[in-house]
Design goal:
The chain is of the alpha/beta class and about 400 residues long. It has 15 helices and 15 strands. The strands form two sheets. Strands 6-7-8-9-10-11-12-13 form an eight-stranded parallel beta sheet. α6 (about 185-200) packs parallel to α7 (about 220-230). It is globular, with a radius of gyration of 21 Å.
Length: about 400
Amino acid sequence: MQCDRIWKGARLATMAEGKPGLGVVEQGLIAARGGRIVYAGPEAEAPACEAPDIVDCAGRWVTPGLVDCHTHIVYGGNRAHEFELRLAGASYEEIARAGGGILSTVQATRAASEDALVRASLPRLDRLIAEGVTTIEIKSGYGLDRETEARMLRAARRLAQERPVDVVTSFLGAHALPPEADGDKERYIDAVCAMIPAVAREGLADAVDAFCEGIAFSPAQSARVFAAAKAAGLPVKLHADQLSNLHGAALAAEHGALSADHLEYTDADGVAAMARAGTVAVLLPGAFYVLREQQLPPVDELRRRRVPIAIATDCNPGTSPITSLLMTMNMAATLFRLTVDEAIAGVTREAARALGRLDRIGTLEPGKWCDLAIWDVERPAELVYRIGFNPLHARVRRGA
């Protein structure tokens, strides 16, 4: 079999479904052709392969390329001042109701050109790429008007041209109420629903998201956004149950959402609904940490119902200014008590599932893109255990 490149002498964490744990293959081999995996498994069982480029991994561990499935990395300005306010005792809700929070980033983002947004976002993206990220989801939501939302999404698309990374975009017009809406949430949701057909027609978004919370939008308003997304042929996801239980997880499941994210206040009925719908739980320990939350997401119930669990940085300027998916894995294990296997699956297979991309990324299996992260570690647990340490040896995207 003629291939473009072969990696041999590797220890594989294939993450393949139906395999125990990490799907470990000792003394493994990966062969790629045309950017896709044609073989991943024991070297002794590999078909006869020839390739002009053969890489000896020298016993290093190889995982799928990492997937950060929930970020807001395209934005203007920063919110360091609000961090100081929170240290002084102000709550997230208090800051938001005083015109800070998301709205302060909206002001800075509206003032930024597309080029400026790309320039500001690249250092954040580079940090994630340096840790083995090969696919990233990026949301809009800091424009809250048609022009700026589209500008954010175009900037996100451009990042995939500036760097070797796959970018999945989500339209998050229903993120907060803009000041010019004069408190009229229904009228603003009308405007958001009117934006969706153009966003879909121009190919700017791969999905539609909403923030269902007391300081944002109600379940009924979020459902209106979902209906508009469905009419435009776009899948949906939801910021759900982060600060209170508005039964957002159940709402997301009812609409067949790819994922429900945050979930700190989700109850057993919400988890059961997600299990029935196949909706992925995306846990965001960075925001939990920064906001010093006390309410833990229902991890045991998610396990009991076999709801897939993904984790992501939620990189954003206010509540999770983190650009390290490795650190996020450690937080998920330390704060939420995820196991090593769950944490690694959460940034590979389950993160790919949360984006509706498991058919092409997230595991080391034939037919999928050859996206790899090659690690200088003795055992996979080091990826979750270490803090502030990056053991990435090499990153491969689409076989290159």
